[in-house]
Design goal:
The protein is an alpha/beta fold. The chain has a single domain, classed as P-loop containing nucleotide triphosphate hydrolases (Rossmann fold, 3-Layer(aba) Sandwich). It is 43% helix and 10% strand. It is built from 14 helices and 6 strands. The strands form 2 sheets. A 4-stranded parallel β-sheet has the order 4-3-5-6, with helices on both faces. A two-stranded antiparallel ribbon has the order 1-2. The N and C termini lie far apart (38 Å). Bound molecules: adenosine-3'-5'-diphosphate (A3P). The site of adenosine-3'-5'-diphosphate has 21 residues, from helix 2, helix 7 and helix 13.
């Protein structure tokens, strides 16, 4: 099958071109956030869809109706994708907005905003493996080649949305510049989903009863989301995402990278991590 490999380069960052146009990227960086907005920020493959589901369920006090009837991209559109403008125009309630954009492109737009920003980070070895498999099934992304090829491109930042290091460092070194900011990791969500959902609900000032929390937690578990066509991307046509080549809801684990990385590749990533994260106090969990 022919791949839809079109790339838009914007501010030196590569974007999959069929979803991102110069206009949509300009719309994003000039966006007017509202104080009632909730903004999910992630580097790809870090738990974006999971957070979209958690927030939907928290705002619905555990009721899964919206999560089971509206695709995630319609209820929490990607700011930088061309369709966002229309979704937001039609939206009536408080808006949930998703973005993979690096901090510097949104810094100005967020400056005076009281929008609630949730940054989800995931250890880069698991991101790398997840992103590699995603490239194999997503026909709008370039063929990743071998894992070793992809790893080298990833470490150079020569992948869609650019460098993981710049993304994580950019957002987490400016937490004080953002009025309402919550940092949460994929690993802590895996370790204790109950506490994580509670943390998100408190941040959103939407306190849930214990029963509502349990309901929310049940519907955003990996197994539940894997079966939910509104978030497992099986609604997307095969020419865009080929589910015969892999599943979007793939493994959902911490430490799965160990099944792919060689020891040498792991050491290389550790070295690059040490050199790129010298100013960071973040601690990632690499295995469960
Ligand atoms: P894997 O490929 O490692 O399985 P994103 O939404 O940012 O693209 O991230 C996708 C990754 O999050 C995939 O990782 C997917 O399986 C995982 N994921 C999504 N929902 C999850 C959940 N409820 N629990 C654990 N992992 C989840």
């Amino acid at each position: 099958m022919a791949r839809l490999d079109v790339t838009e380069t914007f501010h030196n960052i590569m974007f999959p071109g069929h979803m991102h146009t110069k206009d949509s990227l300009n719309y994003a960086i000039n966006f007017q956030f509202q104080d009632t907005d909730t903004v999910i920020v992630t580097y790809p493959k870090s738990g974006t869809t999971w957070m979209q589901e958690i927030i939907t369920l928290v705002l619905g006090k555990g009721d899964p109706t919206i999560a089971q009837t509206q695709p995630n991209w319609a209820r929490a559109p990607w700011l930088e994708q061309y369709y966002c403008v229309d979704v937001l125009k039609a939206s009536t309630g408080p808006r949930i907005i998703t973005t993979h954009l690096p901090y510097h492109l949104l810094a100005e737009a967020l400056q005076d905003s009281k929008a609630k920003v949730i940054y989800v980070a995931r250890n880069l070895k698991d991101v790398l493996v997840s992103y590699y498999h995603f490239h194999k099934m997503a026909n709008f992304l370039p063929d990743p080649g071998t894992f070793s090829d992809f790893l080298n491109d990833f470490l150079k930042g020569a992948v869609h949305y650019g460098s993981w290091f710049d993304h994580v460092n950019g957002w987490t070194s400016h937490t004080k510049d953002i009025h309402n900011f919550l940092y949460i990791t994929y690993e802590e969500m895996c370790k204790d989903l109950h506490v994580s959902v509670q943390k998100v609900s408190r941040f959103l000032q939407c306190n849930l009863t214990e029963d509502e929390l349990m309901l929310a937690q049940k519907h955003c578990s990996f197994n539940s989301m894997k079966e939910n066509t509104m978030v497992n991307y099986t609604l997307i046509p095969q020419e865009i995402m080929d589910h015969s080549k892999g599943k979007f809801m793939r493994k959902g684990k911490v430490g799965d990278w160990k099944n792919t990385f060689t020891e040498e590749q792991s050491r290389l990533v550790d070295d690059v991590y040490s050199s790129q994260m010298t100013d960071s106090s973040l601690l990632f969990k690499w295995e469960c």
